[in-house]
Write a structure and sequence with these properties.
This protein is mostly helical and 88 residues long. The chain has one domain. 80% of the residues lie in helices and 0% in strands. The chain is built from four helices and no strands. The chain starts with a helix and ends in a 9-residue tail after the last helix.
Length: 88
């Protein structure tokens, strides 16, 4: 789903692109929160570490960070005006 939203963000401009980026950031943030919960369960309840789970937690954290940076970069205050395809 995040890949589809990323591809959609590449094809859109202005407020629509910002909405798509906001949705993808919120999904990544939700994934990060769920991953943090699972990491807690992994460490303190199960008391075992799974390499795949750690890799997944790292990836979703990176996705949330990149999503936040992309959302910040497209903020109207930073741009001054909405970008158009010809200005990029």
């Amino acid at each position: 789903m995040l890949l589809g939203l990323a591809l959609a963000a590449l094809q859109t401009w202005g407020p629509t692109q910002r909405r798509v980026l906001a949705i993808s950031f919120l999904l990544a943030l939700g994934g990060f929160a769920f991953s943090a919960y699972l990491t807690y369960i992994e460490l303190f309840v199960i008391e075992a570490i799974c390499n795949w789970c750690v890799a997944s937690a790292i990836l979703i954290t990176l996705l949330a960070i990149v999503g936040g940076i992309n959302l910040w970069r497209t903020s109207p205050q930073r741009l001054g005006a909405s970008p158009t395809p010809s200005s990029l």
